[in-house]
């Protein structure tokens, strides 16, 4: 049994290191665990985007894949399993915590079997984040291996009640254990009062700022973000800040031109540290048609930014309609624009929702409570 809170636990964390909620949460979790005295080893193909160059008790191990003429696509899942096996042995890890079922939970199971050959037990905790269940895992090509990898994990967590029920519906039964551990926010970082708002004057002058942050995939419906902003611009001057990059960025830029609002839309590209930007926003827009949690919405709320979002999936567990923002039908840009307008034209209404957003983010999704939940899970398996 590992002494949690004593000498600490040695955890190998694997996540997708690229721009997105699962990688952000996994990295922030590792950093928070390290701050509590645990030893964290990130195992993935590149440094996670929110991982600083050096942090005490945190190490990064790159998964490298050899090139071989027969492999048109080198098998990353096998290379990852080998690297997990290597890091466990070299650094005497206590458990593996993988974020995303495919291929990470599968690779962890392979590493576990390799370690078992030498008589070493290696617990695996799998955290499900969304599309690994709702899209990839339910594809016929991956369904069986996703189900197998989840069932072979020692503990399984999901970031929302919505995702828990979706996992059970797709892969298990009512006896299939999935613990809900929500995404979290650090109020010391996501705090409107801790950041210089002078940048707002450079971006928008004295105009209100609407903001959207994502990887610009089709599921995010970034054209609806542009359309919602155009509805706002019909009634008042405003600026839209688009943070991130991805396949639909060019289409969003074209839509802004088509709707005649391009001069008021700022495409900033990918930015890793978004808290200072959120601190200057007045309304956060999230028009996605599928979302298992909505981490960017939570980070916005923690910065006192009311959220106007599509009421789908786990977003309904984050945003409280009428209190911290509005939840509206997917694609209803007129209603979203009206909701944003209602906030921006009524300072007292905006202030109530801003204050309520901060209070809800800290009370329900504070980092300390969530990290403690993960520590308890580690204690149960290690």
Description of the molecule:
There is one protein chain. The N terminus is likely disordered. Strand 11, helix 11 and strand 12 form a beta-alpha-beta unit. The chain is of the alpha/beta class and 382 residues long. Helix 2 packs across helix 3 and helix 8 crosses helix 12. It contains 14 helices and 13 strands. It folds into two domains: 191 residues, Rossmann fold, CATH 3.40.50; 174 residues, Rossmann fold, CATH 3.40.50. It is globular, with a radius of gyration of 21 Å. The strands form two sheets. A seven-stranded parallel sheet has the order 3-2-1-4-5-6-7, with helices on both faces. Strands 10-9-8-11-12-13 form a six-stranded parallel sheet, with helices on both faces. It is 42% helix and 16% strand.
Number of strands: 13
Side-by-side strand order of the widest sheet: 3-2-1-4-5-6-7
| N- and C-termini, Cα separation | 6 Å
Stated plainly, the CATH topology of the largest domain is called Rossmann fold
Oligomer: single chain
CATH level 4 superfamily of the largest domain? Glycogen Phosphorylase B
**How is the biggest beta sheet arranged?**
7 strands, parallel
């Amino acid at each position: 049994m590992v002494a949690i809170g004593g000498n600490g636990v040695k955890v190998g964390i694997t996540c997708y290191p690229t721009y997105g909620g699962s990688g952000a949460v996994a990295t922030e979790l590792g950093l928070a665990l390290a701050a509590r005295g645990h030893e964290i080893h990130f195992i993935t193909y590149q440094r996670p985007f929110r991982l600083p160059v050096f942090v005490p008790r945190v190490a990064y191990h790159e998964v490298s894949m050899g090139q071989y003429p027969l492999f048109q696509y080198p098998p990353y899942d096998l290379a990852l399993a080998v690297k997990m096996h290597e890091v466990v042995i070299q650094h005497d890890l206590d458990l593996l915590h993988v974020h995303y079922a495919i291929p990470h939970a599968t690779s962890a199971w392979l590493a576990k079997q390799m370690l078992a050959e030498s008589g070493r037990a290696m617990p695996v905790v799998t955290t499900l984040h969304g599309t690994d269940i709702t899209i990839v895992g339910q594809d016929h090509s991956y369904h069986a291996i996703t189900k197998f990898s989840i069932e072979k994990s020692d503990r399984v967590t999901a970031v929302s009640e919505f995702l828990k029920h979706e996992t059970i519906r797709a892969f298990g039964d009512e006896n299939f254990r999935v613990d809900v551990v929500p995404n979290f926010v650090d109020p010391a970082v996501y705090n409107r009062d801790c950041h210089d708002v002078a940048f707002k004057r450079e971006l928008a002058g004295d105009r209100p700022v609407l903001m959207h942050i994502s990887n610009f995939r089709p599921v995010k419906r970034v054209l609806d973000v542009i359309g919602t902003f155009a509805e706002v611009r019909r009634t008042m001057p405003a600026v839209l800040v688009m943070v991130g990059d991805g396949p639909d960025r060019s289409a969003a830029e074209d839509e802004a031109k088509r709707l005649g609002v391009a001069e008021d839309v700022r495409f900033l590209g990918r930015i890793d540290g978004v808290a200072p930007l959120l601190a200057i926003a007045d309304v956060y827009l999230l028009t996605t048609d599928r979302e298992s949690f909505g981490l960017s919405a939570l980070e916005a709320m923690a910065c006192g930014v009311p959220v106007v979002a599509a009421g789908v999936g786990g977003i309904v567990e984050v945003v409280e309609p009428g209190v911290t923002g509005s939840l509206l039908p997917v694609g209803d840009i007129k209603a979203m624009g009206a909701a944003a307008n209602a906030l921006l034209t009524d300072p007292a209404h905006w202030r109530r929702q801003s204050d309520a957003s901060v209070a809800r983010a800290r009370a329900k999704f504070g980092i300390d409570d969530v990290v403690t939940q993960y520590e308890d899970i580690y204690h149960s398996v290690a």
